[in-house]
């Protein structure tokens, strides 16, 4: 039995959201993950919470007021009235307006803020939100399927109680939104391992190290196609060990984007579940309060496999390779196994290349000011504490909408300063977050490498999706009969 207390945030509404036909981001993957977690019985070893939805005011702890207001107002029906804002905030193409978009943001961000609250209060040692990890969202801009940056919001909450927070990103894409938010502070160290070179979002060069007080507190490990488990761990472990030794964070946030797995619809790495999860296992061993978040992942059966397996590691459970019966069993055929095998793609990351970059980054860490401390001025009040009424012992029993409405806002949410940037810096205790882009980004759309390029018209795609769903249901019925 695990001695660590693990909090797990899940809202069963999340899987109903739909970015659009043929869009690779499918919130349904969170429902598949949750269902697998239930059917493996791992949920018994965690405290399960339904996240309180993040309020507008909570979201503006990082995002600009006008951006949040826009996200709340715009719908597929009225979007023609918002052409100017749609362009300004980049809510188009990769980041389309869809039904319930704002609700989706509130659930995703609410879950991650909830994780931070649980960690801050000491009620949990580990907190998980697979609906979070949306690392590309900027202060006033949607990017790479991300609208609100739950990670930045969670880290801001952690900074109320912790001098230093470490952020690690193992998504195949660079964690640009989080890096940018904390680029000029030494209170947050960001470390991202990602594919670099003609790839979304275009940032994350090894030379990008932070600025001002934050110089050397942003680390980037640019990678090439085809990295396998062994090569990945040959850099991840020594670098993270050194970061933990030199930086000594009070809390760690680990973004577990599953698009770095082999066979991902958008990715080009060759990691198996075991290789990916070794990062989780390694960070867990430090016994530092840990938040584990989702992120990318576009071959959804593998995303569910990966996050289920990683949840089991956090609660020290062993899973059988044979998948248990679950609502989405058909997705996992023909093997119906948990683990996946790497493919025979070439690993373009030579030993030499990895070794050189590793030494370069370790050198930077060696010269760091050991565990820097910042004078903490006034600490803003905590966000809502879930333990008052949110714990669901039975994951199927949910708090009713009416009950939820009864909840009163935290007094801190009622402050109404008009000075947006000033307020932010005061409440974060951080220097100004750079609002403009640091570098001229050579941005490639995230879908540029989608092997399943949309070639049909929307109506046809919708029908196709419908047909697939029907087919899946029929298969399921057949299976049940047999
Ligand atoms: Zn990604």
Question: Main attributes?
Answer:
482 residues, alpha/beta, Arginase, Chain A, 2 domains, 14 helices, 9% strand, globular, metal-binding, Histone deacetylase, HDAC_I/II, transcription, HDACs
What does it look like?
The radius of gyration is 21 Å and the shape is globular. Strands 6-5-4-7-8-3-1-2-9 form a nine-stranded mixed beta sheet, sandwiched between helices. Helix 8 runs parallel beside helix 11 (351-366) and helix 9 (273-284) runs parallel beside helix 10 (300-314). The protein starts with 5 loop residues before the first strand and ends with a helix. The protein contains 14 helices and nine strands. 46% of the residues are buried. The protein is an alpha/beta fold and 482 residues long. Zinc ion binds at residues 171-173, 257, 259, 295-296.
Return the structural class.
alpha/beta
- Biggest sheet strand order reads 6-5-4-7-8-3-1-2-9
Q: Please state the average pLDDT score.
A: 86
Helix content: 25-40%
